[in-house]
Amino acid sequence: MANGSIDTAALSANRPIVISGPSGAGKSTILKRLFDEYPDKFGFSVSHTTRAPRVGEQHGREYYFVTRGEFQDLVEKKGFVEHAQFGGNCYGTSIRAVEEIAEKGRICILDIEMEGVKQVANHPTFPRPRFLFLSPPSLEVLEQRLRSRATDKEDAILKRLNQARVEMEFARSGEAPHEKIVVNDDLEKAYQEVKEFIVGQEP
Ligand SMILES: Nc1ncnc2c1ncn2[C@@H]1O[C@H](COP(=O)(O)OP(=O)(O)OP(=O)(O)O)[C@@H](O)[C@H]1O
């Protein structure tokens, strides 16, 4: 559906799932396994961005590449379920992109950070998705995992840990929309709990 009306039928038949949690909590690891186990069941929406395409990137595949003006228009029309700026560029998940996944009969998985979660939860028209928070067992364990992942420099690790503290406090506060918090201590157990939340009780 286009032109501002929301395909609530598709979105309630295949309710999107918002998964959030600190960087390093294990979201990618768990989602990859879920997509491998259920290859036809899920989808990631294609985001909008104002950054320039990189070599090999295609409009509509990696991102919808738009101008700042086009991006702003969609913000004003409340066409994004959530949007943010990183490194001077705007990024957003459009309602339309999420609908497209639901219209294919798939569950859209939205892997988004805390500010985005708040926007989705407070969106004026977008039907409420289901919210899951993936937590590391502790900040100490998170620090070890970020260090052993070895993808970040020291200052990036410290920033992620600070942000993790804020996200974990938010998740435990009464303001957070999460229906479930899964603690990723033992990976197998966490995976089964995530799977039960996502697949075990549809829609
Ligand atoms: N239960 C676990 N026990 C031990 N190590 C784990 C566990 N879960 C994930 N890891 C490891 O922790 C690191 C972080 O996991 P991952 O990259 O999936 O996190 P993420 O939440 O997707 O982070 P980002 O948001 O930065 O992409 C990885 O090296 C992963 O192999």
TrEMBL record:
Give one Pfam family.
Guanylate_kin
GO MF terms held by the record: ATP binding; GMP kinase activity
Q: Nucleotide-binding: present as a keyword of the record?
A: yes
Entry EC number(s):
2.7.4.8
Note the Gene3D superfamilies from the entry. Answer: P-loop containing nucleotide triphosphate hydrolases
Does Transferase count among this protein's keywords? yes
- Per UniProt, residues of the Guanylate kinase-like domain are 14-199
UniProt entry keywords in alphabetical sequence? ATP-binding, Kinase, Nucleotide-binding, Transferase
Output the CDD domains linked to this UniProt entry: GMPK
- Provide one Gene Ontology cellular component: cytosol
- What SMART domains does the database record attribute to this sequence? GuKc
State the similarity comment: Belongs to the guanylate kinase family.
| Protein name, as recorded | Guanylate kinase
This protein's species is: Lojkania enalia
The major lineage groups are: Eukaryota, Fungi, Dikarya, Ascomycota, Pezizomycotina
